[in-house]
Design a protein that fits this description.
Low-confidence stretches of chain A: none
Radius of gyration of chain A: 28 Å
Oligomer: heterodimer
Distance between the termini of chain B: 58 Å
Low-confidence stretches of chain B: none
Largest sheet of chain A: 2 strands, antiparallel
Helix content of chain B: 40-55%
Number of helices of chain B: 7
Structural class of chain A: mainly alpha
Largest sheet of chain B: none
């Protein structure tokens, strides 16, 4: 009995503190669970403010892109563009890009997307939404990629409610960077040097940008819907099969005889370069050293005790202490001057190239007018096609002059050369039809240039305004009903365009 | 007689309960994990989340784990004693919440260990510093080398600002 009593007492004495300890441990564990809890964000959540509830600093900095609000009318600054893009949307309206906050607004406002009156009308295909909105991966998941890429732009108007945001680059569960646009994966795999599945985190810090900041075209793809109806989709496709260089993509397009549009004046089967930012960046000093887009465009910043990656994507020159000067030990002023000089060099060759190629178009137009034959023009049109493709490729991504100055100037040089070759041949053709001294008409202002190519500018503006006040308002109502509309994505949005509604224009 | 048998059962039951309770506490506290050197063990509780996250983003991540800096390396006995001592202090602080409201600081003892470990790995660098040390400005008691590495290398490896809220979104800590 004595031994049993001792054992019992000892056990109880041991049990009591162990119970208390167990309670304490479980309390601590519960607390830890709260602290380490991963935010619950639903898959394909397109409203960035929902992500922002958990990642406030990143979201706040993303919203700062609203400050990049200046409308910079590129057609006004470079009227030759109107001639270069005659017969194509870009001759109607083209501004320098604004912050991510405006991405969807500007896509809806630009004269390029026209004034559809219902889901079936309008000049552009559905593909034009693809890089503008977090609703795109959601919609593709819902209806399938081929169905998404079928029909007119206006078809998806009531579904596309939020500008590019969190869900375009992040996994909803882990926040890991992720590719939400499959065409990038297909492009990378076709090119072969960096397979999508093998991308490292550092690669991903550029690839999420490359989903949109790349050269692409809309590949016609036949498919059959579930009712057995044959349809044609225009699927965003990267022309990377032969490589990332301008020549490799030129060959790709030539091999499949791809034509973006036929030039209104010169009848050239044209290519429109989009914005091969990723491809050109890869050839420059930073790209070759695997400095990611995010390293300079989304630098780490410190707020109080917290360090995070700024989502205010913009020019790294705006806050050099956090960007360039992390690696380069130089004076800010000297740095800025050097970059400005790079831009001047590009601008110089860019102006020359635009002037040469615009003249070539107008001279070719004259040659057709005088009765030139297909045989006369064949080689010339091929030269113009290649010249403009190369010029466009070199400058369309805006930052190319900095990302890869040598490559940019090299391509511009070859564009000027091709353009001048076309013009030398054109002189011979013009001379053949007694117009050897022909001088192209004046296209020194946006208005003159649009008159030269016969663009009904005010009509386009009126159609656009009717759309903005009509169909677009219906879209917004439907988006609200579907729970897609995020008021904070549109808060403080001011209507700002390069064109003016007719009643304002008349004043 | 009957009480005696009953007491016998009671005693056996209470011993079993004690053993069971010990097993449960061992399980709940991940007791076994503390025998390992995995840095994840140091974030069994949330208190070291920021230290873990800042280390995980530092160059030391590739070369040195928590215990490789924070525990003595030379002798296994020293290491086990140091680990037990620190472990007891940490458990005590965590259980009785004595650390709350305090800025967590490293102990004098732990400082000595870390300094020794810095030197152990960066021997070549330190030997050069020592070789030229008589040329340096002298400071403090015996004049030479009594400052710690991190008197100058202040952000190695945990950064300069660290509190529970410094690394709010660190997914290395928030393992799913």
């Amino acid at each position: 009995m004595k031994r049993s009593a001792v054992l019992t007492i000892v056990s109880v004495v041991a049990i009591v503190p162990m119970v208390l300890l167990a309670i304490s441990i479980n309390e601590n564990k519960a607390e830890q669970k709260n602290i380490n809890a991963v935010p619950q964000i639903k898959k394909f959540e397109s409203r960035s403010s929902e992500w922002g509830k958990h990642y406030q600093r990143q979201y706040d900095s993303y919203k700062q892109t609203k400050k990049s609000d200046k409308i910079d009318d590129m057609l006004k600054a470079n009227p030759a563009l109107v001639v270069l893009w005659a017969g194509y949307g870009f001759s109607k309206d083209y501004n320098a890009p604004r912050g991510h906050f405006y991405m969807l607004e500007d896509n809806i406002n630009t004269l390029r997307t026209g004034g559809p009156v219902d889901a079936m009308t309008g000049p552009m295909p559905t593909a034009c939404w693809t890089c503008k909105s977090t609703d795109v991966p959601r919609l593709i998941d819902e209806i399938g990629e081929l169905d998404y890429f079928t029909g007119k732009w206006a078809r998806h108007g009531s579904e596309i409610a939020n500008p590019v945001g969190c869900g375009d680059c992040h996994d909803n569960e882990t926040m890991k960077l992720t590719i939400t646009r499959d065409f990038l994966k297909r492009g990378l795999d076709a090119e072969g040097s960096l397979k999508a599945a093998e991308a490292t985190h550092q690669d991903m810090r550029s690839l999420v940008c490359a989903q949109c900041h790349s050269e692409y075209y809309f590949k016609k793809t036949e498919w059959t819907d579930k009712n057995g109806e044959k349809k044609t989709a225009g699927v965003v496709t990267f022309p990377w099969d032969n490589g990332f260089s301008v020549e490799a993509m030129e060959k790709y397009y030539d091999d499949i005889s791809f034509v973006d549009w036929t030039h209104k004046v010169s009848k050239t089967p044209m290519l429109k370069a989009q914005h091969p930012g990723y491809e050109i960046y890869k050839t420059g000093a930073h790209g070759l050293n695997n400095v990611a887009c995010a390293d300079c465009h989304m630098p780490y910043v410190r707020e109080g005790g917290v360090k995070y990656s700024s989502h205010n994507v913009g020019s790294p020159l705006d806050h050099m202490a956090n960007t360039c000067l992390n690696c380069h030990s130089e004076e800010e002023k000297a740095f800025k001057e050097r970059v400005a000089r790079k831009l001047e060099r590009k601008t110089e060759l860019n102006k020359t190239a635009m002037d040469v190629i615009a003249q070539a178009h107008l001279e070719a137009g004259k040659a057709w007018e005088l009765g030139a034959t297909e045989a006369d023009m064949k080689e010339i049109l091929q030269d113009i096609r290649h010249a403009q493709w190369r010029w466009d490729y070199s400058i369309a991504s805006h930052g190319s002059f900095f990302h890869a100055p040598e490559e940019t100037l090299r391509i511009l040089g070859s564009a000027i050369n091709k353009g001048q070759e076309a013009r030398v041949k054109l002189r011979a053709v013009l001379a053949k039809y007694d117009a050897g001294d022909y001088a192209a008409p004046d296209f020194s202002t946006k208005e003159k240039a649009q008159a030269v190519i016969g663009l009904p500018y005010q009509k386009l503006v009126d159609e656009k305004m009717a759309f903005l006040n009509g169909l677009r308002q219906e879209w917004v109502k439907e988006q609200m009903q579907k729970g897609l509309y995020d008021p904070s994505a549109w808060e403080g949005m001011v209507f700002n365009t390069s064109y003016k509604p007719s009643e304002v224009a008349e004043k | 007689m009957e009480t005696k048998i009953m007491m016998k059962y009671v005693s056996i039951l209470s011993v079993l309960a004690a053993v069971g309770m010990f097993a449960y506490v061992g399980y709940a506290s991940n007791m076994i994990s503390y025998l390992s050197e995995d840095p994840k063990v140091c974030i069994n509780c949330h208190t070291m989340n920021t230290e873990y996250a800042t280390w995980q983003h530092s160059s030391h991540r590739e070369r040195a784990t928590c215990v490789e800096c924070h525990l003595p390396k030379e002798s296994l006995v020293d290491k086990i004693f140091a680990k037990s001592r620190d472990g007891f202090k940490h458990s005590f602080a965590m259980t009785f919440r004595t650390y709350e409201g305090e800025n967590i600081r490293i102990s004098e003892d732990a400082q000595q260990r870390i300094q020794a470990n810095c030197i152990n790995c960066h021997r070549e660098m330190v030997s050069e510093i020592t070789a030229y040390s008589k040329l340096y400005q002298k400071e403090g008691g015996n004049g030479q080398m009594d400052r710690k590495c991190w008197s100058c290398h202040r952000d190695v490896p945990h950064g300069t600002t660290r509190s529970l809220t410094t690394t709010p979104d660190n997914l290395g800590v928030k393992e799913i």
